[in-house]
Amino acid sequence: MEVIIKETYEAISQEAATIIREAILAKPTLVLGLATGATPLGLYGELIRIHRQEGLDFSRVTTFNLDEYLGLPADHPQSYHYFMQENLFRHINISPENVHTPQGTAPDPVAYCDRYEEEIQRAGGIDIQVLGVGSNGHIGFNEPGSSLGSRTRIKTLTRETIEHNARFFSSADQVPRFAITMGVATILESRRCLVLASGREKARAVAAFIEGPITSSVTASALQLHPRVTALLDEAAASRLKLREYYRWVYENKSAAQRWRAT
After folding, report:
1. Where in the sequence numbering do the catalytic residues fall?
2. Beta pairing partners, 119
3. 3-state secondary structure of 189
4. 94: nearest Cα among 51, 43, 41
5. Which helix (H) or strand (E) element contains residue 261?
6. How does pLDDT run across 70-104, given as a tens digit for each residue?
7. N or C: which terminus of the chain has fewer CB atoms within 10 Å of its end residue's CB?
């Protein structure tokens, strides 16, 4: 796992946007997995800026979102479909038919989850999956105790997640108790994972998933098994890492290491 520590949230957002920009330029038909929540907002803002100022073309890019609340229609202000439209899609030239967000109101959500997996496979698999990390170490809505071999499915949310997300609703009682989420194994099949974490409140979860044991109690720890993960952290989120100075050293000497590998 490559761990990159930057001074600020803005810096990790810019670094993430640069990675995605370079990937789209190299492969205009990139398949991009996307996350919601506060953490990727800076990244999406940067991608919008790059599109407007540099002409980055999203017309052939395909996207798949990680998750959606079960029961919320696409036009609900707290649905993740609405979030993505407001914070990214309507500001870039992506084709609507290339956008995939789980349907929270699917008549048969179990069958729908299977079809979502099939759609990812038909698209050729996800090239880069953007991830945030929950304060309890979850990725997507794969709460603690989720199978590390799980696929897209319906997941019951923990009380902690419900209370954390209550700030987006009028009260915790209005937060849905269930969600459709990509599974851990689905995420691990992505060719590259890009994990963003910011703030001291994420420091414990960051240390657990990067340096702790691989365990279903911290589903993000399964990323240790992936051959190509980049964790982008600000100073606060990295504050509990025991090896943070080594990670800095590796990053500072990255170009030299790449030259060595090429010889």
Report:
1. 67, 136, 138, 143
2. none
3. coil
4. 51
5. helix 254-262
6. 999 999 999 999 999 999 999 999 999 999 999 99
7. C
| In-domain check, residue 218 | no
CATH number of the domain where residue 54 is located: 3.40.50.1360
Amino acid at 253: N
Query: Domain range spanning residue 101?
Result: 2-178+196-210+235-240
- Do residues 32 and 44 lie in contact, with contact meaning Cβ atoms separated by under 8 Å? no
DSSP 38-83: STTHHHHHHHHHHHHHH----TT-EEEESEEETT--TTSTTSHHHH
Q: Which two tokens stand for residue 18?
A: 């640069």
The verdict on residue 245 lying in a domain is no
**Amino acid type, 249:** W
Q: Are strands 31-34 and 128-132 parallel, antiparallel or unpaired?
A: parallel
Name the domain count of the chain: 1
In a domain? residue 65: yes
Q: What would the pLDDT profile of 194-216 be if each residue is shown by its tens digit?
A: 999 999 999 999 999 999 999 99
Q: Is residue 24 part of a domain?
A: yes
- The one-letter code for the residue type at 227 is P
Phi, psi of 69 (to 5 degrees): -65, 135
Distance of alpha carbon 234 from alpha carbon 89, whole angstroms: 26
